[in-house]
Structures are given as C-alpha cells and as structure tokens.
Amino acid sequence: MSKSIEVNDLNVYYSDFLAVEGVSIDIKPNTVTAFIGPSGCGKSTFLRTLNRMHEVIPGARVEGEVLIDGKNLYGTGVDPVLVRRQVGMVFQRPNPFPTMSIKENVLAGVKLNNTRMAKSDQDALVEKSLRGANLWNEVKDRLDRPGSGLSGGQQQRLCIARAIAVSPDVILMDEPCSALDPISTFAIEELIAEIKTQYTVVIVTHNMQQASRVSDKTAFFNIAGTGKPGKLIEYDDTRTMFTTPSVQATEDYVSGRFG
C-alpha cells in the first residue's frame, strides 16, 4: 500500500554540523518525486532521513517530524528496523549480496525480518518480486546462480526486487542509474513508471532529463556556500519546475547556467 510522506521543519545534523535545514515537504501516494540540486546540497542526506538510514553515521540526528501516513518515524519507541522495512532503499551502485544466489538475494530482507515461509510461498514471492522488477524472464532459469553474475542493470533491478519483496509502502532511490549504461538506465526508468502504481517513489538524481522524464513532482535543493546547510528551495509539479520555476536559482540549475 502506497503511503503519503509529510515532513515538517526537518533539520539534519552530523554532530554539530547542520547539514540540512528547515525542510518541509508533502509527498502524495503513488507519485514519483525527484530530488535535484548540486553536489553537497543535502538531497541524499535528506532522502536517508525518510527511512532513518542516515543514523548509520555516528553523530547523526534530526529535529522535526517525518510522518508516513500520519505516523512519525521519529516518535518515541519507533524501531528503525521496522521503519526500513516500511521504507525500502535502492542505492547508487547495485549491491546484491555477492555470496547469495538470485533467489536468496530477493528473500534476504524477508529472512532478516524472521518471516517463516513455506518453500512454495518463497518461490511465489521470488517470482512476484522479480516480475515486479521486470527481471523474471531474464533470470527464471538461473535463480540458484549468484546475483553478482548479472549485468549492472540487472543487478540494480535485483536490488529493486529485494526492496519490493518485503512489501514496503515507500521506495527510495539514491541515484539508481548513475553507474549504469543508457539501455539499463532506460529499463530502470520504465520500471519506476510501473511501480508507482503500487508504491510512493522518491529518487535523487543528477540527471535533469531523468528527473523530467520519470517524476511527477520535483524538489530543488541548494546550498548557500561552503559550510552552510542545504535547503529546499522550490518544490512543484515537474513540468512547472522545468518550464516556469518561480525561483531564479531553480531556473539557472535546470537550464545548466548554475555555478
């Protein structure tokens, strides 16, 4: 079930350094939202606060709220492991577990959650997840071979299948195509368009054409200078952001006149 995301006045710190300041944003269910902006503006940091992945870095903390369907991820007693099951993540470089087969990779998250399943249910979930990631027909005859033997684009789709398998509400993607060739990139973009019917998708990308192709809404982040926090500058329908943005810095960035 796709869910809404509501962020209220979020500040992200690494020890004493304020990395992202004062972000408020509403993301609707069954949409693709692209985060764009120059390197170091905090967009990936902010993305990771949406499933508490930033907490793996010592000294990381937040102020403010992140609500998924009205429930605060940072509320008292909320288990970050459960948050990460609800909000899946696909990283910049494909990262299938190298010692595991394709099938084991898909089931890895489910097994981490101590979910006991009959073999027939496992097989059904593997097929459903790989079909959901548009990978089933390419790998169905070699499910017991290592996931690391796939091409880069296939590995990234395997990681998406792994994320889908635990039935999340939201899928985050941190530059999922930056390590891929154009054909693999196209396959991932097609997949994003398909999975938004079931999930809320948030993607960080440096590729302006990709943001304009895949997203319904775009958020532009920027940074005021060295040592300054990243801020959300503008957030609107993607078409508006790329044709008639209301902030000059957004127009400069999307038109390539930035910097």
UniProtKB/TrEMBL annotation:
<protein>
    <submittedName>
        <fullName>Phosphate import ATP-binding protein PstB</fullName>
        <ecNumber>3.6.3.27</ecNumber>
    </submittedName>
</protein>
<keyword id="KW-0378">Hydrolase</keyword>
<dbReference type="Pfam" id="PF00005">
    <property type="entry name" value="ABC_tran"/>
</dbReference>
<dbReference type="InterPro" id="IPR017871">
    <property type="entry name" value="ABC_transporter-like_CS"/>
</dbReference>
<dbReference type="InterPro" id="IPR027417">
    <property type="entry name" value="P-loop_NTPase"/>
</dbReference>
<dbReference type="InterPro" id="IPR005670">
    <property type="entry name" value="PstB-like"/>
</dbReference>
<dbReference type="InterPro" id="IPR003439">
    <property type="entry name" value="ABC_transporter-like_ATP-bd"/>
</dbReference>
<keyword id="KW-1278">Translocase</keyword>
<dbReference type="InterPro" id="IPR003593">
    <property type="entry name" value="AAA+_ATPase"/>
</dbReference>
<keyword id="KW-0067">ATP-binding</keyword>
<keyword id="KW-0547">Nucleotide-binding</keyword>
<dbReference type="GO" id="GO:0016020">
    <property type="term" value="C:membrane"/>
</dbReference>
<feature type="domain" description="ABC transporter">
    <location>
        <begin position="5"/>
        <end position="248"/>
    </location>
</feature>
<dbReference type="GO" id="GO:0035435">
    <property type="term" value="P:phosphate ion transmembrane transport"/>
</dbReference>
<keyword id="KW-0813">Transport</keyword>
<dbReference type="GO" id="GO:0016887">
    <property type="term" value="F:ATP hydrolysis activity"/>
</dbReference>
<dbReference type="GO" id="GO:0005315">
    <property type="term" value="F:phosphate transmembrane transporter activity"/>
</dbReference>
<dbReference type="GO" id="GO:0005524">
    <property type="term" value="F:ATP binding"/>
</dbReference>
